[in-house]
Prior knowledge:
Chain B: It holds the Pfam family Aconitase. With 163 residues, chain A is α/β, with parallel strands linked by helices. Chain A has helices at 12-15, 26-30, 40-44, 65-72, 85-94, 136-144, 147-152; strands at residues 3-5, 50-52, 77-80, 97-100, 113-116, 121-124, 127-130.
Amino acid sequence: MRVWKFGDDIDTDAIIPGRFLTIYDPAELAKHAFEGTRNEFARDVREGDVVVGGTNFGCGSSREHAPLALLGAGVRVVVAKSFARIFYRNAVNTGLLPLVCPETDAIRDGDTVSVDLAGGFIEANGQRLPVEPVPGFLKEIVEAGGLVAYAKNLDKVEICNIE
Amino acid sequence: MAATIAEKIFSMKCGRTVRAGDVVMAPVDAAMIHDITGPLAVRVFGEMGGKRVYDPDRIIMLFDHQVPADSIPAAENHVFMRRFAEEQGIRNYDLLEGVCHQVVMEKGRAAPGEIIVGTDSHTCTYGAAGAFATGIGSTDMGFVLKFGALYFRVPESILLEIDGAFGRRVGPKDLILSLVGDIGADGATYTALEFTGGAMHDMDMAGRMTCANMAIEMGAKAGIVRPDETTRDYVAARRGVEPLDLAGDADADYRERRHYDVTDLSPQVAVPHNVDNVVDVADVAGTKVDQVFIGSCTNGRYEDLAEAAGVLGTADRFADGVRVIVIPASRTEYLKALRAGLVERFVEAGALVEAPCCGPCMGGAFGLLAPGEVSLSTSNRNFRGRQGSTQASVYLASPATAAASALYGEITDPREV
């Protein structure tokens, strides 16, 4: 899994610019991922590649086109020191796995990494970097493969249950 | 038990005490969808097996990002959404009323104590009405359309006590830019901001909306202005009922309490390419601008346009070579500006006054920037490429600073005009 390394505050306008928001097909969105800020991404990204960022990854607009564009590009995992709230939730809901890893500075662009979810770490450059699991109530959604799959068989929800 | 406003709202909705950190499936009082993120929410609703929305009267639909349709796919989205509204009996304001956040507020669809979600990150604007309002993605919205509820983690709160009195031509936008600069783009991630203090309570609803609107630029989940007489008058006039009294308790468990005084605040500017990259206007004065945009959900209200017109004063024309785009945030605000003669003044001075919509802040519809161009905008984001080319630069400022800069063709301190 090749790493595409990005810095801090990667916003959703960078992931998918506003002029492409009438597109909803992930494969089509992927053709414009990071257009204008990192053009080689859409050209060279391969199935299973991993996007790695710094702090506040996915800040800005609530556009779900951002995780969809990454999924369309074949990315299944995004690793960052921290995520903006809406992007994090959108990623979980659409089946893109967001992993918080405080030590992404140790990961370089072009590195090959492997993710060991059961072990709770990413292996990069021979180092095991711990990742934080998705919190409790979102875990079921991740395990279902996204919120659509999770909600499809629900008829009603119990209001105000406290987890 | 002492509680923050956010804790009180979730506790009221759930009929039992909930605290920051609790995760609850909370009922949603209102849900807003628009032309960009709405179609995906509607599709997801169908994929989740949704047939009828949980309550059509609680769903607010309108189009503002690409209006009138700027492309065939945009027109198709509008048709798709209209059809859904008709099928479901949802009130659709269509493209007639203006920018979503302004419309929700002015139609009285937000009130103190309510939980409101919208598929737009600036949904936090309704915190100006004392609501817990937050932006969500389309898939979460599909869930809300079906079930009328959503999982929320009740957030910790940061108390922001804002005191003092603004100087001449300094106002709410300068305050909120200075807060974003101080707290940082992720300094309030996952939290609810609770605004109070003399300067907040002296502010009109327009100014409070400007502040609540940009809570998300600090990563916040909500930005709630403690309701007072001004809130009550605004909401009661639109709802016809006396809204709820709501305040955080003095001994509530705030994650942090921050105090600011606006008395000596200078006009603030967010410089490219992050909203928290904030400086005093003096630091960037003289920067040439190609385009000035006065409008958006942040600063497109009558009060903002009047502030800009005040700076324009009796000057004949904006500077040569500057494209000035003025977009009132709603039809109501447009009419107010029209009747007060502001639209005539802007047009005489060389501005393009457009019909209510998101305008250049959408980064796709119109008013885009070429590589190397510079825009000064009263909107809320200056990300690379937000208003067109990723090689362009966007500065954010108040309507007064925007008007002063339009007059001179370069970033200008409005106090010196």
